[in-house]
Amino acid sequence: MPSSTLLSLFRYKAWADGELLDALATLDAAQYGEAHHTALRIFNHIHVVDTIFKGNLLGEPHGFSATNTPETPTLNMLRTAITALDAWYLDYIAGLSPQDAEARLSFNFVDGDKGQMSREEMLLHLVTHGGYHRGAIGRLLVQCGITPPRDTLTAFLHRNEPERRGG
Question: With CB atoms counted within 10 Å of each terminal CB, which end of the chain scores lower, N or C?
Fold first, then answer.
């Protein structure tokens, strides 16, 4: 997969994360406390996995022994951390050569099992993993009467590249 496609997918991911963070900010935590807390836990899980794979990509320790943290960050804390990490991934991918993208790396999962994936596979995992869990947060919002954002790749492309609507 060319790095331009990966870059497009991570631009989409950053946009979708931002759209959902904005929607989550409209959820009344006092009225929907359990749903709000669950949504933060799910978003934190996405962020922790993104952070773990940053460490795997760099061959550095990530410092996690689980795919979530014991404490639940605030929405503002999550927004800051997610925005920064999404920006890091965009910079990382922009500098990734096709050979480096295809290189297979060895790493340990947090449960201790060993794994091997190419950088490209790791990056694609993060896009699909985040989308899966953003959908779960969207369902929580629906149950609380909030319409979640249309965070599909097609919506992103058509909003950011309106010329793609042409025939």
Answer: C
